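Suppose you are handed a protein chain with no further information: no name, no annotation, nothing but its sequence. What can you learn? This example shows the usual starting point.
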Amino acid sequence: MLCVRFRVIGSETDTTELITALHGMPGVEHVEEVADLMEHMDDADSSSAGLTDDIGPGVHALEVEVSDHIRAELVRQLAASVAEKLDASVEFVDEF
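A reasonable first move is to predict its three-dimensional structure. Written in structure tokens, the prediction is:
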């Protein structure tokens, strides 16, 4: 089984819609949003904390298990297409 990993840059709603679309694809075995293990450098007492430049879309890490290379490419195409329609972005990665 192959695993397609990517980040969704968008809202929680965008991510949920993308996950729903992926669940409907034949050959998709499992779709999961994985925990972000990266430490963030947010400093609550910073003079710039909470400014509009600091507020933006969320980043959500997804793993999709598929049956073969053809399905993996179809997942990438669907994810990019759905993200574009939702005005979100996707970044495909080998590992998180």
